[in-house]
Amino acid sequence: MILQRVAQVCARPITLRGFATKAKSPPSFPTTPTCPSPTCACAPTPEFPEGFEIDHKTNINGLISNYAQHVLVCTGKDDWPSRIEDDNSGDNLAADLRELVGRGGQFNDPFHNISVLNASFPSSPAPKSRPELQTTSAYLLPSFKYVPWLPRVSFDSVEALVRGYLLPEKLHPLHDGLSPIHRDRLLRKPAYQNALYGVKDVDEVVVLICGHGGRDQRCGAYGPLLRGEFEKRLPEKGIEVVTGPVEVEVDETVQALEDGEGKKDERAKTAARIGLISHIGGHKFAGNVIIYIPPNQTTKDGVRHPLAGHGIWYGRVEPRHIEGIVEETILQGKVVEELFRGGITQDGKILRL
């Protein structure tokens, strides 16, 4: 409880009044001040009743959750109850994960927050060798891993996911006072990765849009609207929109080692997946969008993408912004300052302007 309170205090933004401060250093990533005006006809911006207006006054820079990893549970649904743990009468992967890493959970670490979200992506079909198996898939971001099969008949796979992929490799210094056993329990154990088959690198751009209408009507309206706009604008810029479940075979892991681990799939175009996700905070800043750029992403000129391995959060996104976001952020690697809520690097560093 004390460590949780310390972590909450440390995570709060600090404002200094009456003191001289150093000039703000430039960001470590390319930016552009505003989103370019669209060249296409966009869907109209939705209107909301009194009390549900979009907040256009608050400075949104830095207003993101302090997290180390997103776990996106592939549900195949576009919306969920207000508490995603209550979906399907409580029998769901999000509930299982939060039992382990949520507040009071066995592996909860206030300095290494694991954010569990539901996503509209469908889960991969069960392996051909076990077609009767009921499984759920998950994305791990910004680790950029895809876990295709988490059997719903055993809690062992959920614990293997947490201990093998989600726990930190190094603990925060404030954990130095813990007993050796307690410290050991909170550290990642790569051996548990052997219990999960078919895990693969994510080599597609992942566009996430909060569409949690069961939590707030603004996100419920903006989510499908912005998804439709991305589905139109991405192909116009030469980016393939991938739909349907990720097809995975167990022997792909062996083949990846033979071909060179991390090698990007041979495609004529950059590829992207677009999904709706559950609550990420900031309803009043809808539409809320997170764009994860894979570590091996290159620009159209063939050089390493400036935002490769990053997750970029945008708020107050309207349909008129989508074309500009695709061009500036996904293609050129520039952060749009006027929409920027924050970001995260692959090693967990939180980005602000």
TrEMBL record:
CDD domains in the record: TRX_Fd_Sucrase
Pfam families referenced in this protein's UniProt entry, alphabetically: Suc_Fer-like
InterPro entries: Aim32/Apd1-like, Thioredoxin-like_sf
Protein family: Belongs to the AIM32 family.
PANTHER family tied to this protein: ACTIN PATCHES DISTAL PROTEIN 1 (PTHR31902), ALTERED INHERITANCE OF MITOCHONDRIA PROTEIN 32 (PTHR31902:SF7)
Protein name as catalogued: Altered inheritance of mitochondria protein 32
Source organism per UniProt: Podospora comata
Lineage of source species: Eukaryota, Fungi, Dikarya, Ascomycota, Pezizomycotina
